[in-house]
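Please check these two lines:
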Amino acid sequence: MYGRHGKTVWVDLDKSCVKEYPVLPEIYKGYIGGSGLAARIVYDHTRPDTDPLGPGNVLVFATGPFTNTPVPTSGRHQVAARSPLTGLWGESDAGGHFGVALKASGYDALVVTGRAQKPVVITLSPAGASIEDGSALWGCSTSETDDALRLRHGKSAQICSIGPAGERLVRFACIINDGVDGRAAGRTGMGAVMGAKRLKAVVAEGNTPTPVFDKEALLSAVREANRVIRRRTESLGQYGSAGAISAIEAVGDLPVKNWQIGSWPEGAHALSGQEMARKVLTGRFHCGSCPIGCGRRVKATTRWGSVEGAGYEYETAAMFGANLLIDDMDAVLYANRLANEYGLDTISCGAAVAFAFECYGLGLITEADTGGVPLQWGDGNALVEMVRMIGGRERIGYLLGEGVRRAAEALGPVTSRAAVHSRGLELPAHDPRAYSSLGVAYATSSRGACHLQGFSHLYEAFLTMPELGMTEVFERFTPRGKGDMVKKLQDLMAVFDSLKLCKYLTFAGVPLADIRSWLYLVTGEDWSQEELMLAGERICNLKRVYKLSCGSDGQDDTLPERILRTPRGSGGSPSHLPPLDEMLEEYYASRGWDERGRPTAETIERLLLTQRQPWF
């Protein structure tokens, strides 16, 4: 077997026992690895009544066949479980070096079940897995946890951990790896699942190589690919993802003042990656096997304290900055550091703070709720204090830590317009009123509002994919062809997440033929384009079936009222609204789903989707 070890390790925290189980070859053939492998495990071992914060939830850390190989941008892993934020399918993709270490420990995936009696740490190595006492680390920040475990296990160990937010079951708590460099499995609350299981951290180390079918040919192919990728992504390496914020603002794609207004050019420039590079940048961070190096390393002194380590990315600049009308770089830098230490998803956290700011203006949240902190638009201190309150579950931060959907339900219907989410997952920082395809992508994404599970808006901006029939850039405001386009790209991104490739690889224009070639050189398996895309389609449909089993169907394939009904009013997209119904009709037909958004019997049979099958 090439590209994989063929085994998973299962840690039962109820019984404090560890067992290894093989992965059947047909699972790899049907679901590839990574996200697909995790989806199959979660689908098979949870039920519609599984409590996301209960011991019955299954938490999966999965690698793909490219992980721990030289394939460009493959230093990634997937974390999946039933989401405590949405109650549906939950997963998050993370970069850095933890996934490489997990694969090098000799396993394709770690599966955690049950709940420990006291805080624990799981360690993985070629010698096996073990459960250690983690009580002394409970209450520590993510960087403190990383430092302590590196002292214990050595500098070669890679750690992923939760901070106090995960321990306190903030529903959008994330998992942080790579210490102060702050790579995150950010979305859908996987950190809360760890906290509920009393799992403080996972330590992975080892030097088990990933078996490669034709190593010399792979190295040769990768050397040439890396040269092209570096050249085509030079700006991303120089300025990080925040380098694009001004261009994103100019076309009307940047969320501003909780998605209420359309233009904010000066503020976007103040938070840009270019300004970060000019003022505070000290270096770049590369994930495993990555030639791009988009990660920022910064050093700054702010009025709240020093920041040394990870700089913010575009999504954080947008949600902690533009969406709150905060153009103070120091405030966004410090709030980002604080969120990483607490272990908070900055997208959902920023959305929760924007929701609170708007409710404060309505008089529904007062200074009695905030400990005397006025929640004024543009106030960086209010942002910092709200991150503290959410991470610590203090005052109004307790309610906001439930996510904007639950917070709006608690505060009353007048707040519903301020709660910008789909299926309980707060919208990421790209606007369907600027790129129509995002409307159908958000409405149908397997985990709730997500731009990464389709990555479609870039094909309305500058990308093409001739191999999938997308020979020209799509006109962004027209609905025509968008349903079919999103379906194809969701299938493709499911392949990326299962092989373990970074979405930024698309910026370099890497063709699908190259990815298929790398897959052959790693695994010896000659996948046709049709077979690979069929696997992506199967993975997407399995997640849809899981979501349906949890009680969410086509009636939830919608967008927040603010996005669907209210124009931005100014900027690069002042009047467009996403034509969702027309795009959904085309999408359902392309998917082989009925009018209620359910895969038909023919689709289920064609994709060989089976009933739940326990692995042992």
